[in-house]
Design goal:
Blueprint lengths: L11 H11 L6 E2 L16 H13 L12 H12 L8 E6 L1 H16 L4 E6 L3 H10 L2 E6 L1 E2 L4 E2 L1 H8 L7 E5 L12 H14 L2 E6 L8 H14 L3 E6 L12 E6 L3 H18 L6 H11 L1 H33 L6 H4 L4 E3 L4 H11 L1 E2 L5 E3 L7 H11 L3
Helix pairs in contact: 2-10, 2-11, 3-10, 4-5, 7-8, 10-11, 11-14
Bound molecules: (2S)-2-hydroxybutanedioic acid.
Length: 394
């Protein structure tokens, strides 16, 4: 029977990871997959994570199942981190999921279950796996304008015009901070205008927040998500711990569904637990437990926040260095957006041909849409990248 299977196109980001591995050049530079790297190219285990793992090893005396929603203490800690007191806790249903992707997948399934005719509006561009999962589930996708390729900032007017066409019960997917793949983000005034459109149309927001703490700081990066959650009747939030806790392979995420009242919350909670049961039963616990321990222990939390700040400032420093180097080499300010963008990524605005040219000639690996992982750089590789960009005539 399996001869009926059709081969699937490889995920572009994951295929690039493999190409990079296979390239024998010592001088190659990996700006592909969204994984933080320090100046030596290592993706370190954060100090607080190591310390929590040690404590856990010493103290944990059972690996028995948690609950279908995961440990409620994880949900509480994460709701506090993402939402603080933006909404009443008893209106938030939440389940632990295998990573942020798991939360996104469960959210899309919830949408499909609640309203099969709902369309999901996604930014153009968005994280390619959003599109892939929506297509896989057969959910209708509508793209809204987002990236302005001339300024490399947000096409805000285009975005507003497009999301105004959403109908009540459609879903508008928004990146809470550090937009992936562009690095271009809305300011709070613009977020308020988006909220107004959501309320006018009756469309339901779904916020994907995978990089809290990588942009302007933990609180600053959550501000838009909190604004949305506190201003609309219903909202979904998919949060990832992969990047800000550096626990990628532990698959740690949380899906939150905010409803109008406590009764609706119960229905949400039961449905989300049901969906977990259908897809993987109990969510992974190890990463979630580490996150809970860190967030609930003052010393671990302080150390985690300090290290996260180091990570964030390192990326900001690399952004400024790259923008300055490009300005020096090109004699133009047109790359200033790199210092304005936030998070791990910037979309350079180069054609796939130029991206390919830089890969072949210089061993520089960026996603074909010219998304660069800024954390893949260090102070020595920034000038090499800048020269390659200018030489390629980007
Ligand atoms: C990325 O965008 O590179 C990351 O979110 C990793 C992934 O799974 O694609």
């Amino acid at each position: 029977m399996f001869e009926t299977l059709q081969s699937r196109p490889a995920d572009g980001i994951l295929a690039l990871m493999q190409m990079y591995k296979d390239d024998p050049r010592q001088t190659k530079i990996d700006l592909g997959v969204g994984v933080y790297k320090d100046a030596t190219g290592l993706t370190p285990i954060m100090r607080a994570v190591k310390a929590a793992e040690k404590q856990l090893w010493e103290q944990q005396d059972s690996k028995v199942y948690t609950g279908l929603a995961g440990d409620p203490a994880f949900a509480d800690a994460m709701i506090d981190l993402v939402l603080a007191d933006a909404v009443a806790r008893d209106t938030v249903a939440a389940v632990a999921t295998p990573g942020g992707t798991g939360a996104v997948r469960q959210a899309f399934e919830l949408i499909q279950m609640a309203r099969p005719e709902a369309r999901v509006f996604v930014s153009d561009p968005t994280w390619p796996n959003h599109i892939s999962i929506l297509n896989y589930l057969g959910v209708e996708i509508v793209r809204y304008r987002y990236f302005d390729k001339d300024s490399c900032g947000v096409d805000f007017d285009g975005m507003i015009e497009d999301i105004k066409t959403a109908r009540a019960g459609d879903v508008v997917l928004l990146h809470g901070c550090c937009h992936n793949p562009t690095g271009a983000n809305l300011n709070l005034t613009e977020w308020r205008a988006v909220v107004e459109v959501l309320n006018d149309t009756g469309a339901v927001p779904m916020v994907d927040i995978a990089y809290q703490g990588f942009g302007d700081g933990l609180e600053e990066d959550a501000a838009a998500t909190r604004l949305v959650a506190s201003s609309v009747p219903e909202c979904l939030i998919a949060a990832s711990c992969s990047k800000n806790f550096g626990i990628y392979r532990e698959r740690t995420g949380l899906l939150m569904a905010i409803s109008q009242n406590v009764q609706a919350r119960k229905l949400h909670q039961d449905t989300l637990a049901f969906l977990n049961r259908q897809n993987f039963s109990f969510p992974p616990d190890h990463g979630a437990r580490l996150v809970t321990m860190i967030l609930n222990d003052a010393a671990l939390r302080a150390d985690w926040q300090a290290e996260l700040e180091e990570v964030r400032n390192n990326m900001l420093g690399l952004r400024s260095q790259l923008a300055a180097e490009l300005q020096r080499l090109s004699g133009s300010d047109r790359f200033g957006f790199i210092a304005q963008h936030r998070g791990m990524f910037s979309r350079l605005g180069a054609t796939p041909e130029k991206v390919e040219e830089m890969r072949q000639k210089n061993g520089i690996y960026m996603v074909s849409d010219s998304r660069m992982n800024i954390a893949g750089l260090n102070e020595h590789t920034v000038p090499i990248l800048a020269k390659a960009i200018v030489d390629a005539g980007v």
